[in-house]
Design goal:
Layout lengths: L1 H28 L5 H16 L1 E6 L11 E4 L6 H8 L5 E5 L8 H7 L3 E3 L4 H16 L4 E3 L17 H9 L3 E7 L1 H4 L10 E7 L12 H18 L29
Parallel strand pairs: 1-7, 2-5, 2-6, 3-4, 3-5
Antiparallel strand pairs: 6-7
Helix pairs in contact: 1-2, 1-4, 2-3, 5-6, 6-8
């Protein structure tokens, strides 16, 4: 109980402090704030408060000098500081637009140019994704959770195709990331903090050029990779999706080349 109360108050205090510092720095520098200026100490503080022991595999797979979309499974709110702490890039998250109205945090997200998507308004969401594609082509890497929500069971949920439409539109690779352990650390809709290990596995980037106009096929391929990585970390794999079975993913193969005329 004491740890839970400490984590709640520390998270609120540390988030307000770091967001304020980031906004003041941006105003003094008269430019959009570098996310790493805020996210690195913010993430380190939250992971320390939660007693997280972080283990990461595949850091060498992070593309250098190239924009990329990092696609990760989503077990807990803790996934956000976990990913911020291991990705040495000036990345942005795709997040629900309602976060933009949260005092301090939302102000910072808007100022720093995070991608806030209004999923309840399809026309608006399409416009926001088009703007996000422009940002990515200009060199901004993005972190996204294709499940669209946190998994309550730890199993990887079916993926929504919006992230993959964005990757195809921007013409950038997707880097699959599997997280395991954050659900035990901080379950969905709970502040019952349980200190412990969180394992992350980063896979090699997957080029999207072979999946032109096939976002569903691309989503299935990336989901199968993340399921494999999650199982390798001791996770539950994936739940039954619309067209794919559970734990053991299907064989991965690139699309066959077109037949000669």
């Amino acid at each position: 109980m004491l740890r839970n109360l400490f984590c709640i108050f520390f998270t609120a205090f540390w988030t307000v402090l770091m967001c304020t510092c980031g906004m003041v720095h941006a105003l003094l520098a008269r430019r959009s704030p570098a996310v790493t200026f805020w996210a690195t100490p913010w993430s380190a503080g939250l992971l320390w408060a939660g007693g997280v022991k972080l283990k990461v595999e595949g850091i060498e797979n992070i593309p250098k000098n190239q924009a990329v979309i990092f696609a990760s499974n989503h077990q807990s709110t803790a996934d956000i500081p976990v990913l911020f702490s291991i990705l040495p890039l000036n990345v942005r998250f795709i997040a629900k637009h309602v976060l933009g109205y949260v005092p301090f945090l939302g102000w910072y997200l808007r100022l720093a140019g995070f991608i806030l998507i209004n999923r309840s308004n399809r026309k608006k969401a399409i416009e926001q994704l088009a703007h996000a594609a422009e940002r990515i082509r200009a060199g901004t890497s993005i972190i996204a959770f294709p499940e669209g929500t946190r998994s309550e069971t730890g199993e990887i949920l079916p993926f929504k195709k919006g992230v993959f439409l964005l990757a195809l539109k921007a013409g950038v690779p997707i880097c699959p990331i599997a997280i395991e352990g954050s659900a035990q650390l901080m379950p969905k809709n709970s502040w019952n903090i349980q200190p412990g290990p969180v394992h992350v596995k980063i896979g090699p980037p997957i080029h999207t050029t072979d999946y032109k106009d096939e976002p569903v096929k691309l989503a299935e391929h990336i989901r199968a990779l993340i399921i494999q990585q999650n199982v390798a970390l001791g996770g539950k794999g994936g739940c039954a999706g619309p067209s794919k079975p559970t734990q053991t993913p299907p064989p991965l193969s690139q699309p066959s080349p077109p037949a000669p005329p």
